[in-house]
């Protein structure tokens, strides 16, 4: 039963919602119901204020000048690195590299991994990868003569275990997503990593969709690289992060040259900066990183375990509600315990963009399209899906608004 108006068992949602100014706005005269969190999340005032505070009170470049503003900015920037390290369970701040987004983070990881490979070495990815964890492997493989293999996804939306094991034989690298941005599938990153390591492969995990929603510990997972974006976890756009094991980062070449990644330059030789700055060329997104720190503070205060529980409850309720519609096809695991609160669906023969447009008229924001996952769309044999994705500020009223708007779609186009 849909529980509009009922309270979450895990989170104080009215209190959380009060922190997000944007949730007060109206769209087409209706209350905004924001269900596009897999694309990007809204920002609490604590994050917005931290950015305003930096620009208003201590704006300066970092790691360079000795004046007070520069020292304050450097301290705040590096404090975020410490927070990120703790948030994902890394061993040291040297292993936390800031990038522009998860995409760049995954490209840094691919650059590190492939620098140690030889032509005809095997790299393995899966059919459920976002383009950001697929295209660089494909392109580098073409350029360097690596052999790229793609592990199948089952009809239940899971990585096919036997195909994975078969493809891992002789593989030098495995890159896979922790949580699918389309299917919602949460992969058992720890056991997949163990299998890949047993086969002798280096492991890159795309944590863009998992890190905001479930507790992550890179040390427990045991992976070699782990990438994510601030903007999907209440932080600003323009900031991402890649965790890499210290030894691997030390031995890998830089990704971008110039600025902060340099220790010494001579006419014939250049010495790289220490970790993690060796991978942070040019002036970083200082305000963004400081805002990311405030986002982590916010999430830690709420508690990722509580976020996970709440999303599990609301995902199970949403699956129940959507399944009541005739002609509704939902992708990904049927068991809510196997997935996060990202629900991709098609509604009869109605085009996903038409569904999203009518929902928008009702104030409900979802995404439609291929979700930058065209290999998976090909597998699902659809050009596009609609996708509703939930976060810590979504309540049962939001779910009711979604189902009400879907009834409207049926009325208008069904
Ligand atoms: N997915 C979505 O609507 P960036 O854009 O670099 O911050 O994140 C890239 C990325 C990498 N991996 C996964 C699994 C992702 O979902 C994303 C971003 C958004 O699904 C925008 S395309």
Q: Write out the CATH superfamily name of the largest domain.
A: Type I PLP-dependent aspartate aminotransferase-like (Major domain)
Strand percentage, roughly?
Answer: 15-25%
CATH class of the largest domain: Alpha Beta
Question: What's the number of helices?
Answer: 14
**What is the CA-based Rg, rounded?**
22 Å
Structural class: alpha/beta
Q: Which sequence of strands runs across the widest sheet?
A: 4-10-9-8-7-5-6
Count of individual beta strands:
17
Unreliable segments of 5+ consecutive residues: none
Topology-level CATH name of the largest domain: Aspartate Aminotransferase, domain 2
- End-to-end distance: 24 Å
Percentage of helical residues? 25-40%
Indicate the overall shape: globular
Main sheet record: 7 strands, mixed
> Structurally, how many domains make up the residues?
2
Name the hetero compounds present: ligand C6P
In CATH terms, what is the architecture of the largest domain?
3-Layer(aba) Sandwich
Mean pLDDT: 97
Question: What key phrases describe this protein's structure?
Answer:
single chain, 414 residues, alpha/beta, Aspartate Aminotransferase, domain 1, Aspartate Aminotransferase, domain 2, seven-stranded mixed sheet, four-stranded antiparallel sheet, 14 helices, 16% strand, globular, binds ligand C6P
């Amino acid at each position: 039963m849909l529980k509009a108006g009922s309270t979450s068992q895990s989170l104080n949602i009215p209190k959380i919602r009060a922190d997000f100014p944007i949730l007060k706005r109206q769209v087409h005269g209706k209350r905004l119901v924001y269900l596009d969190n897999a694309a990007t999340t809204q920002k609490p005032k604590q994050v917005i204020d931290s950015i305003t505070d930096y620009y208003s009170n201590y704006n300066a470049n970092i790691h360079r000048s000795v004046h007070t503003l520069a020292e304050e900015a450097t301290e705040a920037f590096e404090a975020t690195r410490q927070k990120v390290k703790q948030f994902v369970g890394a061993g040291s701040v040297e292993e936390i590299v800031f990038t522009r987004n998860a995409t760049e983070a995954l490209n840094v990881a691919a650059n590190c991994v492939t620098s140690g490979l030889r032509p005809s070495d095997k790299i393995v990815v899966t059919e459920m990868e976002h383009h950001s964890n697929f295209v660089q492997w494909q392109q580098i493989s073409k350029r360097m003569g690596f052999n790229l293999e793609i592990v199948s996804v089952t009809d239940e939306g899971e990585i096919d275990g036997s195909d994975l094991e078969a493809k891992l034989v002789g593989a030098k690298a495995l890159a896979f997503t922790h949580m699918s941005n389309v299917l919602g599938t949460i992969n058992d990153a720890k056991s997949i990593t163990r299998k890949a390591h047993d086969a002798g492969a280096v492991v890159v995990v795309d944590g863009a969709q998992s890190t905001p929603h479930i507790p992550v510990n890179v040390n427990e997972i045991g992976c070699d690289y782990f990438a994510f974006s601030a903007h999907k976890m209440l932080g600003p756009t323009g900031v991402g992060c890649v965790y890499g094991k210290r030894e691997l980062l030390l031995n890998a070449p830089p990704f971008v040259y110039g600025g902060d990644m340099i220790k010494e330059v001579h006419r014939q030789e250049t010495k790289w900066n220490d970790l993690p700055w060796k991978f942070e060329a040019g002036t970083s997104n200082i305000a963004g990183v400081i805002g990311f720190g405030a986002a982590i503070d916010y999430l830690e205060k709420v508690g990722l375990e509580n976020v996970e529980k709440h999303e599990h409850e609301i995902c199970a309720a949403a699956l129940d509600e959507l399944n009541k519609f005739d002609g509704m096809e939902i992708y990904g695991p049927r068991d809510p315990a196997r997935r996060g609160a990202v629900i991709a669906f098609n509604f009869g023969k109605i085009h996903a963009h038409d569904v999203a447009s009518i929902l928008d008229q009702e104030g409900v924001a979802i995404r439609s399209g291929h979700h930058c996952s065209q290999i998976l769309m090909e597998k699902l044999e659809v050009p596009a899906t609609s996708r509703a994705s939930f976060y810590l500020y979504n309540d049962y009223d939001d779910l009711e608004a979604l189902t009400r708007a879907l009834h409207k779609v049926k009325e208008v186009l069904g």
